[in-house]
Amino acid sequence: MEDGCRLCPRECGADRTHGELGYCGMPMELHVARAALHAWEEPCISGEEGSGAVFFSGCTLRCVFCQNYQIAAGMAGKKISPGRLSEIFLELQEQGANNINLVTAGHFLPLVVLALEGAKNQGLTIPVVYNTGGYEKVDTLRRLEGLVDIWLPDYKYESSRLSAKYSHSADYPKQVKEALGEMVRQAKETVFDGRGMMKKGVMVRHLVLPGCVYDSKDVLDYLYDTWGDRIWVSILSQYTPLSHVKSYSEINRKITKEEYDEVVDYACFLGMRQVYIQEEGCAEDSFIPAFDSSGVENHCEKGVRNG
């Protein structure tokens, strides 16, 4: 990165390799806030055993309603090496994880690639999930060719006005469309095993926001018109207005049942069949995991620190 960091659409140019923080809030060294079995993904991702979720610190978006704001803002996480990240992947596999779930990893991608290659050389065989807010560069995603099996992007907005207001990224709709096209290209097909677990494919998540049903419908229009049954879609009702969203009064509430049902009904109207919907009661902060560095440090490291 001689000309500075250009990994994400921000292209901030920060000299992250020498400790300067990028727009993501992170230097280049890997920072991970949690690595553990995670039960709160879609059923075909988590299953009964759980998804091996690795939550990376920092984020290239600035969503005002972010539920993981502690790690998105870099307030939590431990610095680790690519070698340790490879170990974490293998440890999660040993714990019975259905997959390795890379949560917001794009700003560390060159080192994540090294860790994935190392883990695969040491026996990592379970699918790898790339779990992202969708604000990605195609050139960056191409580095993951052959390493990622399941693509799990958000498609937050179709409106650039909303994306500018709530995620400080007016170009989000353009970038997510290009990124999704690359994900579909790499995935090639959708594969489920006999237990109904996804082994390969693309699932796009859309979080319904209060008062934004019209935009949710526009998102579904685009996804179905463009990709049809080549992808799965997960319509989320879990929007939780945490304390930092109070200054945005129009979204400082949970969505209503009527709002969510209207979006789901619209998906049915369009003829979408490959859709996950959420049960009531998911919009609670109790569903947000503790970013306490669980699973990040190995026992030897802990022994040295406690010694």
Task: Explain what this protein looks like in three dimensions.
This protein has 307 residues and is α/β, with parallel strands linked by helices. It contains 10 helices and 10 strands. It has helices at 43-46, 69-72, 82-94, 109-121, 138-141, 160-167, 172-187, 213-227, 257-270, 299-306; strands spanning 30-38, 51-56, 78-80, 100-103, 128-132, 150-153, 191-192, 198-207, 232-236, 275-277. Helix 3 crosses helix 4. The radius of gyration is 19 Å and the shape is globular. It starts with 29 loop residues before the first strand and ends with a helix. The model is unreliable at 299-307 (pLDDT under 50).
How do you describe this structure in short?
The protein has 307 residues and is an alpha/beta fold. The chain contains ten helices and ten strands. The radius of gyration is 19 Å and the shape is globular.
The number of helical elements comes to 10
How many strand elements? 10
Query: For the report, how would you describe the main beta sheet?
Result: 10 strands, mixed
- Give the SSE string: EHEHEHEHEHEHHEEHEHEH
Task: Name the beta content range.
Answer: 15-25%
What's the helical proportion of residues?
25-40%
Whole-number average pLDDT?
92
N- to C-terminal distance: 38 Å
Name the overall outline. Answer: globular
Q: Uncertain segments of ≥5 residues (pLDDT<50)?
A: 299-307
Structural class assignment: alpha/beta
Which radius of gyration do the C-alpha atoms yield? 19 Å
Q: Which structural traits does this protein have?
A:
17% strand, alpha/beta, 10-stranded mixed beta sheet, 307 residues
